Amino acid sequence: MTFLARLFCAATLGLMSALPVSAQYVSAEDVVDVSLMPGYRLDGSRHMAAIRIRLAPGWKTYWRAPGDGGVPTVLRLTRAEGVTGMAIHWPRPQVFYSNGLRAIGYEGDVILPLEFALDTAGVARVSGRLDLGVCQDVCMPITVDLGGVLPVETTRDGAIAAALSDRPYTAAEAGAGAVTCAIEPIADGLRVTVRAQVPDTGRNEALVVEHRDPMIWVSEAATERQGGWLIGVADVVPADHGPFAMNRGDLRITVIGSRMAVELNRCTG
């Protein structure tokens, strides 16, 4: 079956810097192509598919937590026949700096593996909507509609398998040690100071804090390395902009550098 992706570019482009007039008429079709890769069955209850994003030279797209200089990539299922759940396996991103802003994402082509939980041994069908941003000197917010079948095929797709292998290390794989989170109230929420015993991950090292509730905003963490420790400070602000009770288990912590990324996830008091 042929998999189709239709691109709808927002009418207003967000300009990151002054551009020549000709640059203001770049279209989405000129810089990005998005498609659904049908993938393969892992077993009777799981299927591995993927989204392939092809970018024109010099263009970037972004990770789930893109930093102040990026646009989050978000996938929402609109139809799921024979599917009971979905998880995105994010490949290791890069840290970029542009006009003084930090962004986290991907340059060039990227494959985002999608693992589906199934309630059928036969063909399943999915449709979804992908929101993403693509940036060079100009940023374009784009919505992509994707749809197709998840076949019973069990032969592994080498490109998807390669993307799965390019994941962040676990804390154990990286040889990371203790991770602590000190929490203090601020006027509109909480401030979290993370201290992580983690090996040097390379240039442009960034510690990223996320909350599992997407309605709770987390600031970009100010990051500093002190020997074998990485310290990051971030503000966590709920929708009502007030103090709230937060479980440390709701925090997701990732360290990203030029050589590797490490998923630390949980922290203690």
UniProtKB/TrEMBL annotation:
- Stretch forming the signal peptide: 1-23
Q: Which Pfam families match?
A: DsbD_N
Domain Thiol:disulfide interchange protein DsbD N-terminal: where?
43-145
Q: Does the keyword Signal apply?
A: yes
Keyword tags? Signal
Claim: Signal is one of the keywords in the record: yes
Name by which UniProt lists this protein: Thiol:disulfide interchange protein DsbD N-terminal domain-containing protein
